[in-house]
């Protein structure tokens, strides 16, 4: 491959961009809390944990889980109704179950387990692409459920329909 064909710098640019956006978003979150004299909550700390682990592929599941738990804790803080809190807790259990399943699947993807890093030894491994597709399909479903959770709470708010739509749009924007 010619030196001019090397596009690895594009990966570096993408990583720097993603990490920068993450750091800016978290910094703005903390600044807003400080300016409004709102104490940091568990959701804030889980967001930092998620951002910290996000930098390592091996810890991807933990990072995604920390971010999802952060969002659920945020929902618990702003929605005080009993029924919605129960659903938030149920979804939280599914998020933790997803993390456990993700870790178990990837830890035991090969028989014997050490074949995952010593490919020359006899044994077999499950199809990694298919495994990732299945695990991430559940991840996407959880994301959709988490995005849908606040809808019932917003619909019960005493405000105009246009404001309710605006508030729901802000929650959906967070899904990006």
From TrEMBL:
Highest taxon of source: Eukaryota
Localization in the cell: Membrane
Membrane topology designation: Multi-pass membrane protein
GO cellular component, one term: membrane
Residue ranges crossing the lipid bilayer per the database entry: 12-32, 52-75, 87-108, 137-155
Sequence ranges assigned to domain Rhodopsin in this UniProt record: 4-175
Keywords: Membrane, Transmembrane, Transmembrane helix
Family, per entry: Belongs to the SAT4 family.
Name of protein: Rhodopsin domain-containing protein
Organism the protein comes from: Lepraria neglecta
């Amino acid at each position: 491959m010619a030196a001019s064909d090397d596009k690895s710098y594009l990966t570096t640019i993408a990583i720097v961009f993603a990490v920068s956006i993450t750091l800016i978003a978290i910094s703005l979150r903390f600044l807003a809390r400080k300016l409004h004299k709102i104490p940091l909550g568990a959701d804030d700390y889980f967001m930092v944990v998620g951002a910290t682990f996000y930098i390592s592929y091996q810890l991807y599941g933990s990072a995604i889980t920390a971010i999802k738990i952060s969002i659920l804790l945020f929902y618990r803080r702003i929605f005080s109704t009993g029924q919605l809190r129960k659903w938030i807790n149920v979804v939280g259990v599914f998020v933790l179950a997803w993390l456990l399943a993700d870790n178990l699947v990837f830890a035991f993807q090969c028989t014997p387990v050490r074949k995952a890093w010593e490919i020359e030894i006899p044994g077999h491994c499950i199809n990694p692409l298919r495994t990732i597709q299945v695990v991430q399909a559940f991840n996407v479903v959880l994301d959709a459920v988490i995005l849908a959770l606040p809808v019932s709470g917003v619909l019960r708010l005493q405000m105009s329909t246009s404001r309710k739509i605006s508030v729901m749009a802000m929650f959906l924007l967070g899904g990006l």
